[in-house]
Amino acid sequence: MHMNSRRFQDQVVFITGGASGLGLAAARRFASEGATIAIADLNTEAAETAAAEFPGAIAITVDVSKPEQVEAAFETAMDKLGKVNVIFNNAGIDGKQQRLHEMDVKNWDLVSRINGDGAFFVLKYGITALLASGGGNVVSTASTVGLAAQENISPYSFTKGGLVNLTRSAAVEYAKDNIRINAVAPTAVRTPLVEHFIDSADDPTAMRELMENFNPIPGMPTPDDVADAVLFLASSEAAWITGHTLPVDGGYLAR
C-alpha cells in the first residue's frame, strides 16, 4: 500500500462504473495518488455525487452497451481534461442466476451486451484516446468466473472468459504503442453488485455463507483490496506486465 504516494500525479483516469463498488473505490485511490478522475456511469446522479468528491473530476453519463455513447464519453474526457492516461474498464452486471438450459435469452443478451460488447467498446474508443495521449494503461474487471467455472451464471462466465482473452489480444496489438492492457479477476467482493447477487439467490443466507467461505483466505475482500491491484497494474511498477489477468481471490484459483 503506497500511502502518500503520487504515482498518478497529473494523470487522467477514466473509470466506467465509477459511481459505486470497485469503480468508486479505485477512483478514491487514484485521486489520493494525484490523478484527475472522469467518472463514467449509467447513473447520472450517482456519477455527479462521486465526481464531487474529487477536485477537478468530471461526471459523464454513459451506457457502455451503446458504442456511440462510449465514443462520446471519451471525446468529452479528452475535451474537458485534455488527455486520458489510464482506463479502468469496470462497468458490468451479474444478471440472473439460472441453469443454462433454463437461461432467459433476454438475460443472456443483456449480460453479453453490457459485459462483453460494452467492455469491447470501452477498449475500442479508450485505446483511441490513449493513442492520442501518447500511450497509457487499461485495466479491465474480469472475474475468477472468467478463469474457472461457477454454476448458474453462464452469460457472466462467457463474457468474463472472453474479456481475459480480449485483454491478451489487445495487449499484444498495442504493446509497441506504449499501451499496456491488463485485467483483474476478483473473487466475490463486498460491493452492491455482490450484495444484489446474494440477495437474489434462492437462499440468500446460504449464499452469503458460501461466499464468505469461498476462498482459502477466510471472508471476502473489500473493494479497496481490489483497487490496490488495479493501481499496481496501472502504475509504472508494472511496466513489464501486459496481457495479464491478476486474480485477487484469496487463493480460490490455486485450488
UniProtKB/TrEMBL annotation:
It comes from the Bacteria. InterPro entries: NAD(P)-bd_dom_sf, SDR_fam. Keywords: Oxidoreductase. Pfam families: adh_short_C2. Gene3D superfamilies: NAD(P)-binding Rossmann-like Domain. CDD domains: SDR_c (cd05233). The keyword Oxidoreductase applies. One of its GO terms (molecular function) is oxidoreductase activity. Signal peptide: none annotated. PANTHER family: DEHYDROGENASES, SHORT CHAIN, ESTRADIOL 17-BETA-DEHYDROGENASE 8-RELATED. Belongs to the short-chain dehydrogenases/reductases (SDR) family. This is Short-chain dehydrogenase. It comes from Cryobacterium arcticum. The lineage of its organism: Bacteria, Bacillati, Actinomycetota, Actinomycetes, Micrococcales.
